[in-house]
Amino acid sequence: MVKPTLAVIGSGIAGLSAAWLLKDKYQVTLFERHTKPGMGAYAVDVGNDGKRVEIDIPLRIITSGYYHELFKLYRTLGVEIERTDHAGAFFTHTGGDVFHYKNYNLGKYSFSFLNSPKRLSRTNVQHGMAAIKFFHDIKKVNLVDVQTLTFGEFLITWPHANTSFIGHILMPMLSTICTCDYDSIKQYPAAIIVDYLACGVAEEGVWKATHGVADIVAKITQGYDVKTHSQIADISSTDKEVKLLLTSGEDYTFDHVVIATQPQHAGPMIAANKPELSHHFEQIKFATSEMVVHRDSSIYPRPWQDISPVCYSVDLNQQRPMATVCLNKSMPTVKDCLPVFQTWHPTTTIEPNKILASVTFERPVMSFETVLHIKEIQESMQKKDNRIWFCGSYLGGGIPLLEAGVRSSLHVANQLGITTPW
Ligand SMILES: Cc1cc2nc3c(=O)[nH]c(=O)nc-3n(C[C@H](O)[C@H](O)[C@H](O)COP(=O)(O)OP(=O)(O)OC[C@H]3O[C@@H](n4cnc5c(N)ncnc54)[C@H](O)[C@@H]3O)c2cc1C
Q1: Distance (Å) from CA 399 to ligand 1 centroid
Q2: What is the pLDDT at residue 85?
Q3: Where exactly are the transmembrane stretches of this chain (predicted)?
Q4: Which helix (H) or strand (E) holds 22?
């Protein structure tokens, strides 16, 4: 039997997982504007002495307590995962000690505790106690009780919040996880952030795909066509078909299309055909930030042997921290390479001749206003004979992370008649 045709636009985790889920029932073609599938578009060789060692930008770390669907997808695809050390060291921007912790692994269990005895300062112990209490107490919060609060309002009203821990540690971590300003974190619906913080993120340690994004992409692109270097300019639909126009001038016709780009890119594609719906995409705010991979060790505090892999430099007068991961410490494959760092939001100058790659990212930011626009987008897909579908990490509920990307593609696949394969 001839399968109906379906186009997926965008090859981040949402588009790739949507195409992979839909390929058995539909004849799928995936379009990506980059020359490589988007999830693996930014990778850099950090090896030395002629040895090639590729790392992903960003690293894409995951935790088992939060990433339920992603873990199942990886298992189904046969993607191996391994622990990565993402323990944090927090400093003020002038180099003052704030807090250090280390991840200790015991078989399949991992727990975080204070770093070496050399770092048992009073401030460190106080922040450690506050962290233990915070992550213990947050699990008792009933999400229904906080569903009308922003995260900022929650912090003000929650009696367990320790001001110094919130300002110097929690907000810098959340700002890095959500890659946005502190003010944007405070505008997030409280339930989204509380749900994330209560999932065991502090006790479980973190994981990543052992062989990086290249391995995931190789496994998840089987069974359908991938057209890279293909940017979609316009999408129009009738009740019988959907027409795609590429910026190259080529056009294609499909039975269905799944738009799996970020909202700021989805809106313009449908602006001419569906102006009202396009408006909802335009209203979803996004934050821009820079990630630099480099060999400038002066950006990392010394002596670096004692310091946990992820180093936060926190200036309370700024809206974001600078966060630097020492890749040699956090990733087994990079252990023996020359010192190499990944810095998010550099606030000091990184020596230009030591920069290996620099990428600017955009990322949706959640707020109650955004949630209203998302509802409208979701309702547009409920209409009878709908042919234009949307997925992406902004539509999966929760923080726009890989997990939400997979949740959103599962949702679309289920609506298009696919039973979840796990
Ligand atoms: C610095 C940083 C660090 C992060 N770290 C983590 C992490 O450790 N763990 C984690 O879970 N998440 C992390 N995230 C979030 C995660 O990367 C995103 O949630 C995820 O990439 C979103 O996937 P997506 O498929 O929704 O969108 P995207 O990955 O943005 O994919 C959309 C794709 O659509 C393509 N596209 C856009 N317009 C067009 C067009 N007109 N035609 C064709 N193609 C188009 C784009 O090129 C892109 O490839 C991080 C994000 C950033 C910015």
Answers
A1: 13
A2: 85
A3: none
A4: helix 13-22
Q: Which helix (H) or strand (E) holds 181?
A: none
Q: Which long-range contacts (CB under 8 A, 24 or more apart) does 328-335 make?
A: 329/85, 330/59, 330/84, 330/85, 330/86, 331/55, 331/59, 331/84, 331/208, 332/82, 333/53, 333/55, 334/46, 334/53, 334/55
Distance 41 CA to ligand 1 centre (A): 10
Q: Once rounded to an integer, what is the mean pLDDT over residues 199-211?
A: 84
Pairing, β 27-31 against β 5-9:
parallel
Asked whether the beta carbons of 157 and 345 are under 8 A apart, the reply is: no
Determine which residue's CA is closest to atom 49 belonging to ligand 1.
Answer: 38
| 10 touches ligand 1 (CB under 6 Å) | yes
Tokens of 238: 């009738």
CB 90 within 8 A of CB 164: no
Domain 5-37+221-284+365-415 is in which class? alpha beta
CA of 8 to the centre of ligand 1 (A): 15
CB-based contact 344:289 (threshold 8 Å) = yes
- The per-residue pLDDT for 116 is 62
Of residues 410 and 212, which shows the higher confidence score? 410
**Mean pLDDT computed over 13-26:** 98
Which atom of ligand 1 is the closest one to the Cα of 67? 11
Establish whether residue 60 lines the binding site of ligand 1, counting it when its CB lies within 6 angstroms of any ligand atom: yes
pLDDT in tens, 381-393: 999 899 999 999 9
Amino acid at 34: H
Q: Reduced to 3 states, what is the DSSP secondary structure of residue 292?
A: strand
Q: How many CB atoms lie within 10 A of CB 330?
A: 23
pTM above 0.70, yes or no: yes
- Cβ atoms of 269 and 281 closer than 8 Å: no
Which DSSP state fits 170? Answer: I
Residues 356 and 354: their CA atoms lie apart, in Å, by: 6
Highest mean pLDDT, choosing among 14-18, 89-93, 329-333: 14-18
